[in-house]
Automatic annotation (TrEMBL):
<dbReference type="GO" id="GO:0016811">
    <property type="term" value="F:hydrolase activity, acting on carbon-nitrogen (but not peptide) bonds, in linear amides"/>
</dbReference>
<dbReference type="Pfam" id="PF02585">
    <property type="entry name" value="PIG-L"/>
</dbReference>
<dbReference type="InterPro" id="IPR003737">
    <property type="entry name" value="GlcNAc_PI_deacetylase-related"/>
</dbReference>
<dbReference type="InterPro" id="IPR024078">
    <property type="entry name" value="LmbE-like_dom_sf"/>
</dbReference>
<protein>
    <recommendedName>
        <fullName>PIG-L domain-containing protein</fullName>
    </recommendedName>
</protein>
Amino acid sequence: MMQIGFNKTNESEYRVLCLGAHCDDIEIGCGGTVLKLIENYKNIIFYWVVFSSNQERAQEAIASANLFLKEAKAKTVIVKDFRDGFLPFYGIEVKEYFEQLKQEFSPDLILTHYRQDLHQDHRLISDLTWNTFRNHLILEYEIPKYDGDLGIPNFFVQIDESICRRKIQYILDAFKTQTNKQWFTEETFRSLLRIRGMESNSPSKYAEAFYCRKIVF
């Protein structure tokens, strides 16, 4: 695994902004990386923002974020109520919130959606991330879906078996409203982790993958 945050030590404060269009996106896309960061950095602070939800899903999202972030030094969890599938049509309001977010939190690392994701909500969040945060390390995570839009990532975070199991179990436990979907299974999540683990020669066999457009060392 490449060390994220090159000038940080385990005792330094490390600030991470997690952005997801929908209530389970962050967990599916980068939940293992979140858990590994918490293990590696004692003084880690998270700002976790979900943009689309309804009342039932918002409750799931908050419960899930609290599971993933329970060992973090500090966390802020925000769940917005923009309509699922319609984010581009709320573009002005979403952009205004990004500008507010930039004033509230200055991250060392941002985890957001992949810009080539075929879901319109995901693409908007990715575009506005880059449009708003111009001097930050940004990693774009991937979401498996029916559209078949998985690409060729260039940044891998190797995770061990215990984190792999925790990530999947937390997702399945938190998002009960999604269990009727044929893709929302342990096999789906573990399969992608295994493929990315193979591609990155992970000793544990598992990894999460990201797209890093720009990195300055």
